[in-house]
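task queued by scheduler; priority normal; single chain, no ligands, no partner chains; default sampling; output format set to structure tokens
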Amino acid sequence: MPKVTIDENVCKGCGLCVHICPKKVLSLNPDKLNAKGYNPATPQFMDRCIGCAMCGMMCPDSAITVEKE
């Protein structure tokens, strides 16, 4: 199963990763703020992830890492 890691302190909550994900694995966490005051993206449905890494490629801040196991 692939593993998606998001550096919440780098994420600015732009939502590009959420929109590009073909399996809708990620979401913005409305209940959490990072040190910069943004709602970070969070892997919510990891069982759906296919490891395509589109989220990592789309992230303008390189806050997302996708590892295929």
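post-processing summary
- Residues 57 and 64 are 8 Å apart (CA to CA).
- The longest strand covers residues 3-6.
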